[in-house]
Amino acid sequence: MTVQAKRRRFSLDQYHRMGHTGILGAGDRVELVDGDIVEMGSIHTRHAGTVARIAHLFATRLDRRALVWTQNPLLLAQYQSEPLPDLMLLVPRTDFYVGGLPEPPSVRLLVEVADASLYYDRQKKLPLYARSGVAESWLVNIDVKRLEIHRNPGRLRYRSVRLPTGSETFAPAAFPDVKLTPRDLFG
Q: In degrees rounded to 5, what are phi and psi of residue 51?
């Protein structure tokens, strides 16, 4: 006899109820991606420091033109997803998104910092962000100190990928005056 495992997908409502009832607690590092509850790895110092460096760069260079949102949820209701990107630059709101989580139209830039999560971020999360209409996503690979700039979202993936090198400058499309180099991201 062959036993076949069945996959159980969850809706956003079920996921939120698990949090409210204590099934998922504050100490659980999980996110909902395409209906799957995904356990996230622990954050190591190199990862945390890179997120902090990038957040500081944007906070100081953007003044109040964007809200720097770190390791907080993005609501992708159409795809039963609520991932936790490492950093987003959001359209500022006076309520700081207390009235509802940000959705793709509010995202000016999304950043995933990857080490052990590189394959998952590239194969699962970036296509999800593209399908959802997030205009620009950066994948910061801290193992090889390489940045991937993903733009022009499509149905399956981003149609434009740029890999700046050396002292080459780049900027978020929403903030072309905020010039950066790879050295700014990696130290």
A: -60, -45
